[in-house]
Design brief:
Elements (H helix, E strand, L loop, with lengths): L7 E7 L5 E8 L17 E6 L18 E4 L7 E5 L6 E7 L4 E7 L6 E6 L5 E8 L4 E7 L4 E8 L6 E9 L4 E4 L6 E5 L6 E7 L4 E9 L4 E6 L5 E8 L4 E7 L4 E9 L5 E9 L4 E4 L7 E5 L6 E7 L4 E7 L5 E7 L5 E9 L3 E6 L4 E9 L5 E7 L1
Parallel strand pairs: 4-6, 13-15, 22-24
Antiparallel strand pairs: 1-2, 1-3, 5-12, 6-11, 7-10, 7-12, 8-9, 8-11, 14-21, 15-20, 16-19, 16-21, 17-18, 17-20, 23-30, 24-29, 25-28, 25-30, 26-27, 26-29
Length: about 375
């Protein structure tokens, strides 16, 4: 239904005997009645029933829909393409699978403006429910087949859409597995779209850990950490070829934790993970107009805290020099723990900070290296 000037109408198809075969609604944006199989031979009637007091016109186009486009594919084998040429025509690509086999599916070379794709089990029920895709293609992440038999990838273009798509079905091997030892890098290479990597490590309650990811050749992936009971400890963290860093966290319970690397879409590649056992933050003290104080952090994720005593109304200058930390935030906290000077970015060129103390008490200078940076600096307070 196109060129519709009726605000709303019900459109029905009646069989030669007058029974309703199908019904749909149309408005000024048009309408479409999906494929129906005619039950008997004879003269059918299309009835347009404007709703309420609506009047107007519409153009009706009736399609003789051929059988669904069919094809076949083998997990891990060559790609398969199909084309639908008539509105209402679907496509089906069949494949044979075994119980427990892991598969993933890529859709590429798509000319459908929009379509739904699903995967049906041998009994016709859904293994993967309907998922929209368009000219950008799509990817169905790994699924484990529940039984042996013939499965079907079904493409259902909505409305009058027609087009083509290429399907690549991957036979996904088991996820990469390994263990992480504190301080020792471990690498994983994921070679098949849908394959993940899972690393485990043992930790004690209260232990402080940080995690560096890199180098990486993955175009995009998620990193997460789960607790021994399987619940989330670190939620999905997106990273790419530049890697990422999970800053210091205290483990809530003793046990075995799992780090998962989940490449997105059809991404494959490798990543190196380094787990750190983070000691307590480095600490020190300094006096206004006193000797300079040097402090260093040696483990990624470790911070430093330097205290000094001050009086209300005193103006101070903090000079940061001899900096070997590539990049760090430096802040100053009041005696009550609230912020006096918010995070200031400091690099190897150093920096000078000034402020006026609002109250008597002990202040804290916090040095927080960014990412996996380590190193030191000299503080001079006047």
């Amino acid at each position: 239904m196109s060129a519709v000037s009726i605000s709303a109408a019900q459109v029905s198809v009646l069989s030669p005997g007058g029974a309703t075969v199908a019904t749909t609604y149309a408005g000024t944006s048009g309408g479409f009645m999906d494929t129906k199989t005619l039950p008997v031979s004879g003269a059918y009637t299309i009835v347009v029933d404007p709703l309420g007091s609506a009047t107007g016109s519409m153009t009706l186009t009736l399609y003789d829909v051929p059988a669904d486009a069919n094809g076949s594919i083998t997990p891990g084998g060559a790609s398969s393409s199909l084309t639908t040429s008539t509105p209402g025509q679907n496509g089906r690509v069949a494949f044979t699978g075994t119980a427990g086999q892991r598969i993933s599916l890529q859709l590429s070379g798509v000319t459908f403006s929009l379509a739904l794709v699903s995967i049906l089990k041998p009994d016709g029920t859904a293994l993967v429910g309907s998922t929209f895709f368009g000219t950008g293609g799509g990817f169905m992440d790994v699924r484990s087949l529940p039984s042996a038999g013939t499965y079907a990838v079904v493409v259902d273009p909505p409305n009058t859409a027609t087009g083509s798509a290429t399907f690549t079905l991957y036979d996904v091997p088991a996820d990469i597995s390994g263990t992480l030892a504190f301080g020792s890098p471990s690498s994983a290479s994921m070679t098949t779209p849908g394959q993940n990597a899972k690393f485990t490590f043992d930790g004690a309650a209260g232990q402080r850990m940080s995690l560096k990811v890199g180098p990486s050749t993955l175009s995009q992936a998620y990193l997460s950490i789960t607790k021994p009971d399987g619940s989330s400890f670190v939620g999905n963290t997106l990273f790419a070829t530049t890697g990422t860093f999970v800053d210091t966290r205290a483990l809530p319970v003793a046990g075995t934790y799992t780090v998962t690397v989940d490449p997105q879409g059809t991404a494959t590649g490798s990543a190196t993970l380094t787990l750190y056992d983070v000691p307590a933050d480095a600490s020190g003290s300094i006096a206004i107009a006193g000797a300079p104080q040097s402090i260093s952090v040696s483990t990624p994720g470790q911070n430093a805290r330097v205290t000094f005593d001050g009086t209300a109304g005193r103006a101070i200058t903090l000079k940061l020099s001899n900096v070997t930390i590539s990049t760090a935030y430096v802040s100053i906290l009041k005696p009550d723990g609230t912020t006096l000077v918010s995070n200031q970015l400091v690099s190897t060129g150093g920096r000078t900070l000034t402020c006026t103390l609002p109250a008597d008490g002990t202040y804290t200078i916090v040095i927080d290296p960014l990412g996996a940076a380590t190193g030191g600096m000299t503080l001079t307070l006047s």
